[in-house]
Amino acid sequence: MLKKSFICLLVVFYSFTSLAQDFKLVFDEPQTHYVTVQMTVDSKGGDLELHMPVWAPGSYLVREFSKNVEAFSAKGESGKSLDVVRNRKNSWLIKSAKGKISISYKVYAYELSVRTSFIDEDHAYLNGTSIFMFVKNQKQVPCTVEVIPFSNWRTMSVALDPVDASNQWKVKANNYDDLVDAPFEIGNHKVLKFTSSGVPHEVAMFGNANYNSEKLTADMARVTSECAKVFGSHPCKRYLFIVHNLSSGGGGLEHKNSTTLQTSRTGYGSESGYTSFMNLVAHEYFHLWNVKRLRPSALGPFDYDNENYTNMLYVSEGFTAYYDDLITRRCGFYSDAQYLEKVASGFSYCMNQLGATLQPVSESSFDAWIKFYRPNENSNNSTVSYYTKGAAVGAVLDMMIRGGSNGKSSLDDVMKAMYDMYAVKLNRGYTDKEFIEMVSKYAGSDMKSFFDKYVYGVEMMPFAAALKTVGCEITNANSNSQKTYLGIAVNTKNSITSVDRNSPAWVGGLNVNDEILGIDQYRFTDDISKYVAAFKPGDMMKVLVNRGGLLRTIEVKLTKSPFVEYLITDADKASESAKKNFSSWLSK
Fold it and tell me: Among candidates 385, 387, 369, 370, which has minimal Cα distance to 308?
């Protein structure tokens, strides 16, 4: 038995090491937005099948990266061209490949987002799944990447180790997963440095911006350190932030040992803009543990050819959204009152999002591939965000765990225990059931019914009861409001862009794309809310619209607005235990 096992191990080792995947990236004309990718593979013979991923982990949408691939060719050791057959949308089959196979293709990259790649004369930003191919069934083998930069580029930042410490332009990865989980920033960007939790951090700053380097790195060190406190350990030997300072836009994408952030180049100059950036830092850095290592079982090892379905994005993304505000508060960027406003806003969303009564947040997670990244005019009526509702679920659970354990435990303890068990000890993903069991352990009671009602069901969460455990109460500022409600959104061209489900507009028959021409006897020229405000609930409104070139008058009976505006304040008679829970919640 021992001898047979030993032979099998040798065979597996040989099959992994016999097929190296080495890449060379050539940037000779970056102004054209192309990179030439040269790939070398040692093949033992037979047909060789290469795949380009269809999506980027962390962004749950099939993006069809192969659409940007051109001029694919392959040659054998003798330099003779080999036959290539396309056998599916994202794969190339090289016939009769044996020995050292040289592959070449070009990638067009001109979409500057955190999920895609972008190349121009100023810099190259590369996300691996949109650049690098892999040999089918050989993602486990080591990879190297050599970069031939454009003539005036001097710097490369990537969270991969150099092959030779004296050469920054050639790096290595343990396998394909590690390679494509390490974005490249190449050009002449500025590099800032700081240490957090004993780990060296770099910040690759592309683009001019109004930041103070010393203050920025000091504050990033505070935020990252606070994230690490939740889990009690740090998994990296070094970490890289790639920051794109742009005229507008924002967002981030997490990676195993790095992240990419996009922000406004002028945003650092205002308190709100600066705090918003620190909030983004907290979110993407928290992913270093939550999803990159502590992950649902469906999210790794990745299937790059197909969707990877999970019900648990409300934890992976939603709980991270809960913690990004909480971490920022614990670092002092929000006051208690400002933080409670954010919690109240999330709770209000759960009540006001019409789709929340139809779509469970678990289903929102599962359907991310077809709904979240592809919203339409009816999304408000039919979907709920696993980010925003997931954050609200996290907040309520945190409060309930604190109350149920008499202040001995919190969601921090759940996240740390999950990380220690599944990421560190078992080195695998967790199931829905395993997560519920861990929450129940720290809450001191079986929480299955909570998840059945509020995560896998659409009942509204017990906000008031949860807040009571931390000495707070919730009120609706709109409870006595007589604000009139129509239920549409209108763009600057006076066309309706959405109609709220069961609203007066919905019942009366107003449609998306109707162009509003008049209301009663008046020409429509201004903000729709101003017209609606002139009516009272119960009034009839006549709306003249252009629908496909035909004029129609739609009569609508207005109602009182159903929407809430929650406020969270300290309870007048909070118990001492609740007050202690509040203090530990925001400062632990």
Answer: 369
pTM: 0.94
Q: List alpha helices for 213-300, DSSP H.
A: 213-231, 271-286
Please give the distance of CA 139 from its chain centroid, rounded to a whole number. Answer: 24
Count the neighbouring beta carbons within 10 Å of the beta carbon of residue 14. 11
Give the Cα separation of 268 and 245 in Å (integer): 10
Residue-wise pLDDT for 253-298, tens only, equals: 999 999 999 999 999 999 999 999 999 999 999 999 999 999 999 9
How many CB atoms within 10 Å of residue 59?
Answer: 18
Domain region containing 337:
313-468
Looking up tokens 């990033």 gives: 220
Residue 490: alpha-carbon gap to chain centroid = 29
| Cα 543 from chain centroid (whole Å) | 41
Residue 433 belongs to a domain:
yes
Cα–Cα distance measured from residue 240 to residue 257, given in angstroms and rounded to the nearest whole number? 7
Of 92-101, 397-406, 464-473, minimum mean pLDDT range: 92-101
Are residues 194 and 182 both part of a single domain? Answer: no
User: What span, in angstroms and rounded, lies between the C-alpha atoms of 197 and 223?
Assistant: 11
Residue carrying structure tokens 């937005």: 33
Q: What is the pLDDT, as a whole number, of residue 588?
A: 63
Q: What is the DSSP string of 111-142?
A: --SSSS-EE-SS-EEE-GGGT--EETT-TTS-
Region at 207 (left for phi over 0; alpha for psi -120 to 50; beta for the rest): left
479: which residues sit within 8 A by CB, 6+ positions away?
A: none
Strand order in the sheet with 91-94: 84-88, 91-94, 48-51, 134-135
Cα-Cα-Cα-Cα dihedral of 250, 251, 253, 258, to 10°? 60
3-state secondary structure of 245: strand
The stretches of 469-566 forming alpha helices (DSSP H) are: 504-508, 528-533
Looking at the structure of the chain, the number of domains it has is 4
Torsion, Cα of 422, 428, 432, 433 (10° steps): -60
**Omega of the bond prior to 149 within 30 degrees of 0, cis?**
no
User: Do residues 161 and 259 both lie within one domain?
Assistant: no
The pLDDT of residue 12 is: 40
Strand order in the sheet with 239-246: 190-196, 199-206, 239-246, 258-264, 251-254
Distance CA 327, CA 299 (A): 25
| Same domain, yes or no: 197 and 182 | no
Is residue 151 within 8 A of residue 140, CB to CB? The reply is no
Same domain, 200 and 247: yes
Q: What CATH number has the domain bearing residue 528? A: 2.30.42.10
SS3 113: coil
Q: Which residue has the tokens 């940037």?
A: 27
